[in-house]
Known about the structure:
By secondary structure, the chain is mainly beta. It has strands at about 5, 10-15, 20-25, 30-40, 45-50, 55-60, 65-70, 75-80, 90-100, 110, 115-120. The strands form two sheets. Strands 2, 4, 5, 6, 9, 10 and 11 form a seven-stranded mixed β-sheet that branches. Strand 4 and strand 5 (about 45-50) form a beta hairpin. It is globular and about 40 Å long.
Amino acid sequence: QAQLVESGGGLVQAGASLRLSCAASADTSTWDMGWFRQVRGKEREFVASISWSGSTKRYRDSVKGRFTISRDNAKNEVYLQMNSLKPEDTAVYYCAGDGLEIRETPQSVDYWGQGTQVTVSS
């Protein structure tokens, strides 16, 4: 089983930036990769995804223009640059990997990281 390990979460003020990283133990160079987030008591929701080549990126509407997903296939890493953070971005952020496609649902995701907490105060 491939392992995904997130890092970079923390507590920041509204308007601040964070950069999340996800390191994979397997070769993910042909995988779709993505990020989901979950607030306690709510459903896990799609945040962003990136195709294996990096040519296709998708974002949920609420983060467009603020978040940027990227990857470094040589390092088997994926990143989420989060700017202009808002309190409503507060959640546990999970790295996701799939050998075929990351869709805008947590179902069908092959691999998950353990999550990293992002807290944005007003």
